[in-house]
Amino acid sequence: MSYVLTEEQEFLKSSAKDLLKEAPVALVRELRDNQNELGYSSDLWNAMVEMGWPTTALSEDLGGLDFGLKGLNILMEECGRTLSNSPLFSSLLAGLVIQKYGGQSHKEVLTKAVSEGATIAIAIQEGQHYQPKNNGTSVIGGAMSGSKTMVADAHVADHFLVSYNTDNGVEVVLIDAKSQGVSISKEFYMDSRFYSTVTFDQVAVDEKEVLSAGKGKSVVSYITNCASILISSELIGLMTEAFERTIAYLKERRQFDKVIGSFQGLQHRAADLYGEIEVAKSIVLKAVDALDENDIMAPALCSMAMAKTSKVAKTATNEGVQMYGGIGMTDDEEIGFFLKRARVAASLFGGYTYHLNRFAKMSGY
Amino acid sequence: MSLDQFREEVVDFLEANCLKSMRKPILDESDTYWGGRNATFKNEDQEKWFHAMAEKGWTTPTWPAKYGGGGLSKEHGIVLKKEMTRLGCRPPLLSFGIWMLGPALLKFGSEEQREEHLPGIIKGEVRWCQGYSEPGAGSDLAGLQTSAISDGDHYIVNGQKVWTSYADQADKIFALTRTDNSSKKQIGITFLLIDMLTQGVSTRPIKLISGKSPFCETFFDNVRVPKANVIGDENAGWTVAKYLLTHERASIAGASDSDVMTPISYYAKSKVGVDKNGVLNDVMLRSRIAEWEMDAASFKFTMDRYAQEMKAGQSIGAKSSFMKYYGGELNKKKYELRLECEGRTSLAWDGEGFKGGKVARQFCRTKGNSIEGGTSEIQLNIVAKHILGLPS
């Protein structure tokens, strides 16, 4: 268990910082204002693929960099700082799942995808909330029907990992996006990113494309764990950046002939938030290591990390807007972008109450 | 001696001298030994254990041997501590002399002062108490007014201290006194050692909301104190005091009671009950418990993280204020939840069946966690100023 970065990890972090200098928050605004149809910069995504980012956690025999989840924690935190969007999240998540539960054919699709920058999107959620146990999607006579919501990067995906119900419980299958009966409806959300509703109408399912048949419950649980790590890492970057910007503003903005950061009412709220961010960082790092090491406590820790970061990210962005005051309410000021991204990120793959409940159940109450 | 050899020696020694009864968890005050002229042993086992440790200087394992300490290296000290923890050995001696005054003497005291005072601390012969706060100087500690007026080679001390832990049991007190009123209040404070038997010193216990009286008021009425008893320089006592407060904050943040290992949800499950799926019957309480356990785990891993960062050479600095703040607030919330989980029996104040009102009294005691050693508000001021760099 290590909370301190090794030299290699430090190097990964600084190279991530360097690349993301090209993708400041201003880029998010630009893509939004130009109504870019991808919702991200393809130049940036190509650069990430060239640097091997989608392979960061993959083992060497899959052509990966073998950093484990720790490496993803570092990358996602940096993406959170600049609110940078790309299909990276979906690619990383698909890579983790296929590496652990995929067969040979899945791994071939994966290695091709990560080297070319093709996307495998994860389609689990249905309806309004992430409730992976309530699956309406089913396969009858080899044909899958159902509808998935909030699917990140579906509009650029070549493949989907889709969960569906059987008499024996849930399964997860790899589906080609070009299959007959797949339709995608792209929707634009408050974080200036696209998510889609993906409908499967009598889509033919090849049983060989099911991941670890019979173990679907474990696959879905692992997806939830890995997504928690990726999103909570992003939220750590997001909340840290929002907090640092807020503190800088408190030192600059003057009222009543003083900088407002000298007022104790604001100082105590800022100091309290500092502490919440400190403990949120620690629980995420602990969960990352636990999942990397296959620790039996890992699922509970992942849920704690996700619950804690979604709560603190909301507080940090709320306090940001409030302490910026009127200017914080304007679109000109960037703090609002942090507020909006935090809300969407903190609901993907289960938000605060979903994960708190999951943690409590795992703890036996 | 190699660490492995030393470990063997330690285990043999502990097995021989720390009898079974001294390896059970401490249940109440009478299970502890504080030393000093007022002390008595609870039983022979306690006496044997204390003397065996004091003789080897292992009441203070890493203090220099020339004062009677154990003279162990840091690494050997860790081995001893680990083996004691593993075997469940009680600390042989509890002492503000060990935790507070000793470190100050080792850092700021003269050789004569160390020779005079350290052996008494190590052997448990002298019990010390701390005289910092005053009725008019709590959070604003530097505003203290207990005066020490020069009179030849003595000071004449007048004033009142409050929250002096166990002053009625102590032999001596280390106190902050005002020796200069003419400049900035942090300057002009002197760190003074005073014998509690000196004419003019008196104490009065303070009864707390928990019903217990660990603290006293201490009065000084024309008390003559030799100038040789100044630690550090005259008017430079604030430096010594700040050094000790950092020690105190770290120990309050890490303070734990015997229930610390039992998850709150355990009490809730047995006292509130669960439904057929094993979910707590009170779902509103359940979510608050889960939130607390999440925060407590996050805080614990933060302490682990800081320990690793320190080992890697990073400085912790004002983070001790954040730890003290967060740890204190967590403990208060924990006892709020315990009362809600346990209900009726946790509200009882007296009686055999209720363990003498243990939970209710502990609950009351936790309210002090965000007051003692610098209030939560003071800690937030320190974080804002020294970590976030916000101006005053």
What does this structure look like?
The complex is a heterodimer of chains A (365) and B (392). Chain A is an alpha+beta fold and 365 residues long. Chain A contains eleven helices and nine strands. Chain A starts with 6 loop residues before the first helix and ends with a helix. Chain B has helices at 3-17, 44-56, 74-87, 96-108, 111-122, 237-253, 264-272, 283-311, 319-342, 344-347, 358-366, 376-387, and strands at 128-131, 147-151, 154-165, 172-178, 189-195, 201-206, 215-226, 230-231. Chain B has 392 residues and is an alpha+beta fold. Helix content of chain B is 44%, strand content 14%. Chain B has a four-stranded mixed sheet with strand order 1-4-5-8. In chain B, 38% of the residues are buried. The chains are: A alpha+beta (365), B alpha+beta (392). The A-B interface holds A 1-4, 247, 250-251, 259, 261-262, 264, 266-268, 270-272, 274-275, 278-283, 285-286, 301, 304, 307-308, 353, 356-357, 359-361, 363-365 and B 263, 265, 268-269, 274, 278-280, 286-287, 289-291, 293-295, 297-299, 301-302, 304-305, 308-309, 312, 319, 322, 325-326, 377, 379-381, 383-385, 387-392.
- CATH class term of the largest domain in chain A: Mainly Alpha
Uncertain runs of chain A: none
Q: Give the end-to-end Cα distance of chain A, rounded to a whole number of Å.
A: 28 Å
User: Helical segment tally of chain A?
Assistant: 11
Can you tell me the CATH superfamily of the largest domain in chain B?
Answer: Butyryl-CoA Dehydrogenase, subunit A, domain 3
Q: Assign a percent range to the helix content of chain B.
A: 40-55%
Q: Structural class, from helix and strand content of chain A?
A: alpha+beta
